[in-house]
Design a protein that fits this description.
By secondary structure, the chain is of the alpha/beta class. The protein is built from ten helices and 13 strands. Helix 4 runs parallel beside helix 5 and helix 6 packs across helix 8. It is globular, with a radius of gyration of 19 Å. The mean pLDDT is 96.
Length: 324
């Protein structure tokens, strides 16, 4: 099997390349950059811009059995919810997906995976901190909380229309806050798990960290290995999606920080400050994933974040020593 992995330099893409290689795939990766923290497992890695239609046409060819489309302009709350990056988020990602799906149709790619997001779910269903509604059928009437979510919803419909009109075998997963090792944690695009791990790793004992918002906002977080299992289960199923790939283990952001602080062994206080936070509550609903693809996560939040904190702490300490 030959796989073309778009967004192979990113966090999930980098891990997925390793997984596909372990399953015996020949993998070609494409991204604007190589993975930041380790060498890619891809057999071939092309540096290029998927917004460039000519590059897409040269790169997406009929030799591939599967295309995995993970490339997007995205980041954490500080990037997505500030409002400063809305045009780039929508323009860049939409252009990538328009180019990619057209090339997949022209080249008769047998199967195409598209990574959507829980950010497509309506704001009006996520006002309750403790009882958010994020089951797949609740996506409409649409009211995503960000331009990132609107673009993801548009692209879901783009891929589904390709399935209907061009008989393309499409698979769509809605990821919920995927985290783990070998992901960005200090470049302004990091998501909450990595940002909290970094802040706690950098803090001194009896120090303080800042958290945006009241800290009562709730989320669930999915460890990367479980995400990869979900992708592969979906790809090997007869189900098109969209389907949630996330955890149902919901926790408030303040309690999440306290969990990481306990792992660190430090005594650290929390200061809640104004900042972009997104919806009040969000967690995955996995009934459809269990029914249609036989998947549910196996790592608890404690297990996954323990591994992640250790890795990020090692990076922070190594950087501190190099500066000294």
């Amino acid at each position: 099997m030959n796989a073309l992995l778009l967004g192979a330099g990113g966090f999930i893409g980098n891990h997925l390349a390793t997984r596909l290689k372990a399953e015996g795939y020949y993998v070609c990766g494409i991204d604007l950059k190589y993975p930041e923290f380790n060498k890619s497992a891809c057999d071939e890695f092309l540096i290029g811009d998927l917004r460039d239609n000519e590059f897409c046409k040269r790169s997406i060819t009929s030799k591939y059995n599967e295309v995995y489309q993970l490339a997007a302009d995205m980041g954490g709350a500080g990037y997505i919810f500030s409002g400063d990056n809305d045009f780039n988020v929508m323009h860049n990602s939409a252009l990538i997906n328009l180019n990619v799906i057209n090339c997949c149709i022209e080249q008769n790619i047998p199967t195409v995976f598209y990574s959507s997001s829980a950010c497509i779910y309506p704001k009006h269903n996520q006002k309750d901190f403790l009882n958010p509604m994020c089951s797949e059928e609740s996506a409409y009437p649409a009211e995503p909380d960000s331009e990132y979510g609107w673009e993801k919803l548009f692209s879901e419909r783009l891929y589904l229309s390709a399935s209907r009109n061009h008989q393309l075998n499409v698979k769509i997963a809605r990821f919920h806050n995927v985290y783990g090792t070998h992901g960005t944690f200090d470049n302004g695009k990091e998501k909450a798990p990595a940002a909290l791990c970094r802040k706690i790793a950098e803090a001194t004992n009896n120090g303080e960290i800042e958290i945006w918002g009241s800290g009562n906002q709730t989320r669930s977080f999915l460890y990367i290995d479980d995400c990869l299992d979900g992708i592969r289960k979906l790809m090997n199923s007869n189900f098109e999606g969209p389907v949630n790939i996330g955890s149902e283990e919901m926790i408030s952001i303040n309690d999440f920080a306290k969990l990481i602080i306990s792992i660190s062994g430090k005594t650290i206080s929390i200061k809640n400050i104004d900042g972009p936070v997104g919806v009040n509550g969000r967690t995955s609903h996995n009934a459809l994933a269990i029914e249609k693809i036989g998947w549910q996560p196996h790592h608890t939040l404690l297990q996954g974040i323990t591994k992640t904190y250790k890795w990020i702490n090692d990076q922070v300490q190594a950087t501190s020593k190099s500066i000294i």
